[in-house]
Amino acid sequence: MSAIGPETFYRAVLGPVPAHASLSGNVKTDVCIVGGGFTGLSAALHLANIGAGPVLIEAETIGYGASGRNGGQIHTGFRQTQRELERWLGKTHARDLWNLSEDAKSLIRELVTRYGIGCALKSGLVIAADDRGAIRPLADDTEYLRAHYDYSAARMMDAAETARELGTEVYPAARFDSGGGHLQPLAFARGIAAAAEAAGAHLHEHTRAQRIETSERSVRVLYDRGIIDAEHVIIACDARAGLLVPELAPYIAHVESFMTATEPLPDEVYESVLPNDSAVADTRHVLDYFRKSEDRRMLFAGRETYLTVPRNVAAIVRPRMERVYPALKTVRTEYAWSGTVGITRTRMPHVGRLNARTVFAHGYSGQGVALANLGGKLLAEAVTGNAERFDALARVPAKPFPGGTWTRRPLVSAGLIWYKILDRF
Ligand SMILES: Cc1cc2nc3c(=O)[nH]c(=O)nc-3n(C[C@H](O)[C@H](O)[C@H](O)COP(=O)(O)OP(=O)(O)OC[C@H]3O[C@@H](n4cnc5c(N)ncnc54)[C@H](O)[C@@H]3O)c2cc1C
């Protein structure tokens, strides 16, 4: 019998981790990658595929961070709408970014097919208007994508169609996006890791980078049991990047997001809830997101905290799930866990160079299932001298969060609580 505990449902169903030996001693490599989530693994795979044989070090286990514990939802575009990006960055740059975000979704499908990754990849993402006030902006954005970006995969659904698609009458309208979808994220991360290793990448778990030192001739990663001398270093630590490289700290904040998995749903409930097996996210800043698992459970997520993780995550998520699906009141929650989401002030990924030898990508702000895999590929392109697509993301101006080392966290928390208050009005 499963108990509610810190174990993620994904890890529990996949079974023991295929282990990768920890590293010890001093080594030399062309590229050292720090972080074994989607960003680092994708960078490792794409470098290995061109014969670079990178060394990747992960402080815990492959997919231990956000990549192995997220909602698995594949989103279209970015957290900022294309219209907002056009106003901010101009039409040409906004279009380049849109093209990248479309590449990100294609990359997932390409990798799953090419490497035969069994991660229950499915099409269909619904963005549900949380209240009537959210309908107009969602409909305008959907129409804008159709008219200006030729994106016809998304269309609006009225209340009746939304109720049929989701099996709940809570939402007054929604956008159905056949270009979005969902997958089992830890299975995907492990699949990419296996492909990277088969192509010649060296993956090491339980190996924590402690400091990075750069000289004119090389860059050194000092880790817990030795030193890695590299031509290039890729920092792929998402929410933790600022702990390793203090100069990145002002640009990356994090929130803890809560997820749960019920027991497998009884037949009558299973058929009525999400009958077409779409994934759903609502339009609030602090959103609910949910989908069904391959083994017929409801995976429901919602709420965030900025400081500490509560002991009983399930108790926080259940009322939100029962509001949307009263029929689930009689169904037990079997797994509850939390994960750290890296966010930026602009809600756009933070991608760039620390110096000529060190690049980074993080802060996908809740849309990293697609974007982090692309981020890793662009990092691989950048260190091999093909930085055109990388530069399109690196040119997005980053904005620091306010405050210094000690005051930033409470200030960021206050800002995020403000967004939560906005959701109530
Ligand atoms: C609960 C939750 C739900 C989410 N839902 C969705 C969703 O439905 N759709 C979506 O698009 N996005 C979602 N996200 C966001 C998405 O998961 C992330 O954007 C993405 O996984 C980031 O990948 P990453 O590789 O950059 O970071 P991570 O997966 O966090 O990987 C970073 C890795 O670096 C390692 N590391 C850190 N410091 C060091 C060090 N010093 N030395 C060695 N290793 C180190 C960490 O252990 C970690 O494994 C969600 C996130 C969470 C937490």
Summarize the structure.
The protein is built from 13 helices and 17 strands. By secondary structure, it is α/β, with parallel strands linked by helices. The structure holds flavin-adenine dinucleotide (FAD).
Task: Report on the architecture of this protein.
The chain is α/β, with parallel strands linked by helices and 425 residues long. It has one domain (9-118, 179-419): 3-Layer(bba) Sandwich (FAD/NAD(P)-binding domain). It has helices spanning 9-14, 38-48, 82-89, 91-115, 135-149, 159-166, 185-199, 241-244, 267-272, 313-324, 368-383, 388-394, 408-423; strands spanning 27-34, 55-57, 73-74, 122-128, 154-157, 174-182, 202-204, 209-214, 219-223, 226-235, 253-262, 279-282, 289-292, 298-305, 333-343, 350-355, 358-362. Helix 2 runs parallel beside helix 7 (185-199). The radius of gyration is 21 Å and the shape is globular. The chain starts with 8 loop residues before the first helix and ends with a helix. The structure holds flavin-adenine dinucleotide (FAD). Flavin-adenine dinucleotide binds at residues 34-40, 57-60, 64-67, 69-73, 75, 208-209, 236-238, 240, 244, 257, 259, 289, 339-341, 362, 364, 366-370, 372.
